[in-house]
Amino acid sequence: MVADVRTRAFAPMKAPRRESASQVARRQAGRLLRTILHEDANRSATASIKSLIYQPCIRNKKATMALTCQTLKYLPIIKEVMENCKFMKNMKKIRDVEVLYVAIYELLFGQELVPSGGVEGLVLERKNALKAALARLLVKRNVSCIDDLLATGNTNTGPQVRYVRVNTLKISVDKALGLLKDTIEVALDDIVPGLFAIPAHTELHAHPLVSDGSLILQGKSSCIPALALAPETDWVVLDACAAPGNKTIQLAALMNGKGLILACELNEKRIKRLQDTVKLAGASNVKVMHQDFLTLDVNKSPLSQVKAILLDPSCSGSGTVHRRLDHLLPSFASQETGGVDKPRLEKLAKFQKKALQFALSFPAVERVVYSTCSVHQQENEDVVSSVLEFAKSNGFQLGYPLPQWQQRGLPIFDGAEKLLRVEPSQDMDGFFVALFERRLGSAVKADNTKISPPMLTQQKGELGSTSKKKGNKSKKKLKRKRLGICSENIY
Ligand SMILES: C[S@@+](CC[C@H](N)C(=O)[O-])C[C@H]1O[C@@H](n2cnc3c(N)ncnc32)[C@H](O)[C@@H]1O
Q1: For the segment 345-400, what is each residue's pLDDT rounded down to a tens digit?
Q2: Which pLDDT score is estimated for 326?
Q3: What are phi and psi of 238, to 5 degrees?
Q4: CB neighbours of 424 closer than 8 A, spacing ≥ 6?
Q5: Burial class (CB in 10 A: 0-12, 13-18, 19+), 269
Q6: Per-residue b/e over 334-347, b at no fewer than 16 CB within 10 Å?
Q7: Does residue 311 line the site of ligand 1, with CB under 6 A?
Q8: Which atom of ligand 1 is nearest to the CA of 222?
Q9: 247 a known binding residue?
Q10: Banded model confidence at residue 335, pLDDT cuts 50, 70, 90
Q11: Which residues constitute the signal peptide according to the record (predicted)?
Q12: What are the start-end ranges of the H helices in 114-172?
């Protein structure tokens, strides 16, 4: 009988009527938790916690984000408390157990739970038992407060600042600063030009300057590879693994919207995202190519004229766990204690080496930046070390990007101090950057004459035009052939 009542108590969750804002946030947080915990248990996550929360279908993102993250943070304690007071005893299998976790979080650690039907009623019915179980847990762990209890299992307190980059293709740094500083505490970064540090809790996703592409939500470490590449404004530049395109549009801004950037991406689904990023940023010097970087014909124009390559290939992403909020996942603890997916790392490193070696074989390239958001030596110093001989034989040497940056490569070979590392912290993703550079002699340069502005204009129009003007089709075909890129690969 009791079980029936409790099962019925969940019924309003299925067909919510006149739900309060807090009930909606609780229900949404519960559903997100269900996805997050299920995917984490199966190691099948397709999106980070953050990107799940920023799906368009989630209403009241701020409240839902807070509830989801806080419940995840307290989840081990919540489960222990539930176990200790035998919360689930005599209960039928509950469909929305994750909503229950959220409600218990609110009762024990958040704002007082308001009596209402559904899951809230169920939790409030057992309020005293839950509170008593928590008190017993404090005694058992020999701690006097919740913070100490939490610290016994989890020391991460979350980020203090977040970063936002001014897209100088759309707005000047001074103007952006002027528009923000009255409402938001803004500090200009001392290393990355036009990067603002703002308090982590600032909600900017819906800010008009973000919506119109004037401000780009981009972490500080992620800005370093493009800075290290430092292309000249009239160069042809290749972003080899470009989606979602944050570094592509940063390169476009560094080149003042001039020159030509070829943004290559293999994954069909991510191409759309890349196109959207480029469009929103107003980066008219970017041409998106849907292609496997490893199959590009380096001897065909304009690839034969590429002077700088940014290679930011797929990697384990082990440096981004804090930003992605992965540290809140149950699986994170085991990874930190060495549970690295070795076969996956090996596969990634193999691809990374191949891609880097290929980048170093472009005939006119003078600067190649290799970057990852991984902390693993295997994807970083080891990859660089494995191509050093090849690089030298092609006339490259390691450059020394951002000399003012203190953290450098792991000292596993002579010259590794030229590599740049960002150690992951609460405010910054872990990152790795290597710069290869060479000066080409006149013999190679003869084959690599600067593209004259009219020719470049033609290529840009040809590669990227979305204009509906009726052009001469055969003329276009001819130009495409000359550029060595199939029409279906151009967006
Ligand atoms: C780390 S992400 C790049 C992030 C991007 N540089 C940015 O800052 O927004 C790596 C990208 O490389 C793409 N990729 C992987 N293999 C590729 C290949 N062979 N050719 C082109 N793109 C590839 C992946 O689909 C993914 O979108």
Answers
A1: 999 999 999 999 999 999 999 999 999 999 999 999 999 999 999 999 999 999 99
A2: 67
A3: -115, 125
A4: 319, 320, 321, 322, 375, 430
A5: exposed
A6: eeeeeeeeeeebee
A7: no
A8: 8
A9: yes
A10: low
A11: none
A12: 118-125, 127-141, 146-151
Annotated catalytic residues are 373
CB 347 within 8 Å of CB 427: no
Residue 314 CA, closest ligand 1 atom number: 10
Alpha-carbon distance 74 to 71, whole Å?
5
Pairing of strands 215-216, 161-166: antiparallel
- Rounded mean pLDDT of 308-333? 80
Type of residue numbered 375: V
Nearest CA to 459 among 289, 287, 276?
287
Tokens describing residue 33: 């938790």
**ipTM at complex level:** 0.99
245 ligand 1 Cβ < 6 A: yes
CA–centroid distance, 7 to ligand 1, in Å, is 47
**Residue 300: its pLDDT value, please?**
96
Q: Tell me the average pLDDT across 44-48.
A: 68
d(CA 431, CA 21): 39
pLDDT in tens, 128-187: 999 999 999 888 888 888 888 877 654 455 677 999 999 999 999 999 999 999 999 999
242 Cβ closer than 6 Å to some ligand 1 atom: yes
